[in-house]
Design a protein that fits this description.
3 helices, 9 strands, 29% helix, 38% strand, two-stranded antiparallel sheet, alpha+beta
Length: 178
């Protein structure tokens, strides 16, 4: 991870911050915010999922991070987050068209970073191909916006390290989104 640098597009953040303060500012000011990370390719799907895939040879294999804005529900508890993600993991083999043999999520935690609640769990998936992947599944809940985040990698340690690498900029995104 050493040597990886991130780039946060300051002009976009400045624009979003100013726009949010102006009377009649657009309700979706987050559209003006764009995150970029050196060595990571960014794509966005039609349903609003933003995905970063590492294109640097120094990156851990199969590393990617994705996030999506979620309905803002500031009262979601860790128990609710755990129940939801445990159900998703239990149902994953049946819902995977035969691609997943087993999935589990453990290690649920909650912390607050710069006023943003970070609910997370560690997911492991066994694939019918014989491979396995790991992820950190998280929900970031700020004062006015919430985002789901998934950090995927080949193993749990790498998934956690990649999540930690992205988290500061994702916190910034949550805080500037109205």
């Amino acid at each position: 991870m050493t040597g990886w640098r991130f780039l946060f597009l300051a002009p976009a953040v400045l624009f979003a911050a100013i726009a949010a303060l102006l009377p009649g500012a657009p309700a979706r000011a987050q559209e003006a915010v764009a995150l970029a990370f050196e060595g990571w390719d960014r794509s966005e799907s039609a349903d609003g999922v933003v995905t970063f895939r590492c294109n640097d040879p120094r990156c851990p294999p199969r590393s990617k991070v994705s996030y999506k804005r979620q309905p803002h529900r500031p009262t979601v508890s860790l128990a609710q987050f755990e129940a939801h993600h445990s159900r998703l993991s239990r149902e994953a083999p049946a819902n995977s068209s035969g691609h997943i043999t087993a999935a589990r999520i453990t290690g649920f935690s909650e912390r607050t970073v710069e006023g943003v609640r970070v609910l997370s769990g560690n997911r492991e998936v066994a694939w019918t191909s014989g491979g396995a992947t790991a992820a950190v599944d998280a929900l970031l809940i700020g004062p006015t916006a919430s985002f789901s985040v998934v950090s995927d990698a080949a193993d749990p340690k790498t998934a956690a390290a990649v999540f930690a690498h992205f988290l500061p900029r994702l916190i910034d995104l949550v805080l500037v989104t109205r």
